[in-house]
Each structure stands twice: as structure tokens, then as C-alpha cells.
């Protein structure tokens, strides 16, 4: 019979790898009364899915290795949701801070939901909804339920690349195609497009 550390290689004679420690802490704060952080997680109904709760190997397969020491586990896109595939990522502290913006409450027709919840209900990206309201002054109903056409961001020059899970900023000026690169969030992409594009643009192939 193999020992536990021979199965996945994330426990050692002199300690544990960070991924394994994160997995243990995640389960403890959600399911062990009295553990550090339980009042903010388990006591509020946040849980770890059965697949991850009972198998570190499955957790590691779904999440992959931590990209670097500055990363920790983050519930995204719903920071009020559970720890489960499709709602978790490795993220930096800055990315996690940005994720909290989806906690903002929006009231519509007597129903109050977080931005993330409205985004799931309408199928419109949360960043798109926030940008429509904050930057363009749209009413809540219009921002939440108006389908996105052409450029998937709703902004000319910004496109979402589903395969890369990035927002790409490309635009044409004076018959020259400019590519500002790819960004993690729509807000970052919009800032690059609306800011000092001449400093960041990389001149590419002419149309």
C-alpha cells in the first residue's frame, strides 16, 4: 500500500507543500467549527465541494500548481460562492481585491443581488455591467440585460478571447493596426484603451 505522500508528492518528511497546506486550511475554515476563519466561511454557509473535500488529488488536478508565491486561492467569479471547480482560481492579492467589487449590491424590481449574481442571471460579464453603469451611466436594467453585440465588451476595440480567458485591445488608427495586448479584466483593458494609448500601443500590421 502506498503512503499518502507517495500518491501526489505534496507532503514531505519535514513538512507540507503550500498547495497541500492551502487545501487543509480551506477545508478547516469551511467545515471545522472553532477553526480560524470559520465564522467568516463555514458559519455563513460557505463549503468545499465533495470532490475537493475528500480528495487532495482532485483539488490539485482541477486547480493545478500554484503559479508563484504571491498567489493564493480565490473564489471567482462569485466571491460569495463555494469552493468548487468553476468558481476558484489562483490569484494575487490585487486580483482578489478587484474581485471584491463584484460584491456591490444592485437593486432591480424589488430584488437586491450582488453584481456577480446579476451577471450569472443575465449571462453578461460582471465587468461589462459595472463599466456600463460606472463609465457610461446606464440604468441597472439596461446594463444587466442588454445583450452584448459585435465587440463582446460592448466597447469598440476590446474583444474577449475565450480560449485565453483574456481581454484583447486592438484598434485601427490612420490605416495602422495597434495591439495593446491582453488583460485579465475588462476594466484593465478599458483603462489601456482610454488612457495614453500612444505610450502603450505596439504598432503592428497595416490593414
Please give a handful of descriptors for the protein shown.
two-stranded antiparallel sheet, single chain, 207 residues, globular, disordered N terminus
Cα separation of the termini:
64 Å
- Give the beta-strand count: 10
Number of helices: 10
Main sheet properties: 4 strands, antiparallel
Enumerate the spans where pLDDT stays under 50 for 5 or more consecutive residues: 1-6, 196-207
Q: Estimate the strand proportion.
A: 15-25%
Structural class: alpha+beta
- Domains (count): 3
Overall pLDDT level: 80
Radius of gyration: 21 Å
SSE run: HEEHHHEEHEEHHHEEEHHE
Strand order of the largest sheet: 7-8-9-10
Q: What does this molecule look like?
A:
Strand 1 (11-12) and strand 2 form a beta hairpin. This protein has three domains: 18-99, no CATH class; 103-146, no CATH class; 148-206, 2-Layer Sandwich (GCC-box Binding Domain). It is of the alpha+beta class and 207 residues long. A four-stranded antiparallel β-sheet has the order 7-8-9-10, covered by helices on one side. 36% of the residues lie in helices and 22% in strands. The protein contains ten helices and ten strands. Residues 1-6 and 196-207 have low confidence and may be disordered.
Amino acid at each position: 500500500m502506498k503512503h499518502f505522500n507517495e500518491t501526489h508528492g505534496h507532503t514531505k518528511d519535514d513538512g507540507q507543500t503550500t498547495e497541500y497546506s492551502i487545501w487543509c486550511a480551506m477545508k478547516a475554515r469551511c467545515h471545522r467549527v472553532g477553526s480560524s476563519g470559520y465564522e467568516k466561511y463555514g458559519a455563513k454557509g460557505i463549503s468545499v465541494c465533495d470532490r475537493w473535500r475528500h480528495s487532495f488529488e482532485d483539488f490539485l488536478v482541477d486547480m493545478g500548481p500554484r503559479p508563484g508565491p504571491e498567489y493564493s486561492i480565490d473564489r471567482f467569479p462569485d466571491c460569495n460562492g463555494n469552493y468548487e471547480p468553476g468558481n476558484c482560481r489562483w490569484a494575487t492579492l490585487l486580483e482578489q481585491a478587484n474581485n471584491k467589487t463584484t460584491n456591490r449590491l444592485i437593486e432591480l424590481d424589488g430584488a437586491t443581488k450582488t453584481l456577480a449574481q446579476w451577471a450569472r442571471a443575465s449571462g453578461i460579464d460582471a465587468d461589462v455591467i459595472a463599466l456600463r453603469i460606472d463609465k457610461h451611466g446606464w440604468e441597472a436594467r439596461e446594463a444587466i440585460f442588454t445583450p452584448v453585440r459585435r465587440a463582446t465588451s460592448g466597447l469598440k476595440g476590446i474583444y474577449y478571447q475565450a480560449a485565453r480567458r483574456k481581454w484583447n485591445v486592438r484598434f485601427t488608427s490612420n490605416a495602422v493596426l495597434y495591439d495593446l495586448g491582453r488583460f485579465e479584466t475588462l476594466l484593465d483593458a478599458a483603462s489601456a484603451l482610454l488612457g495614453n494609448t500612444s505610450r502603450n500601443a505596439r504598432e503592428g500590421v497595416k490593414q
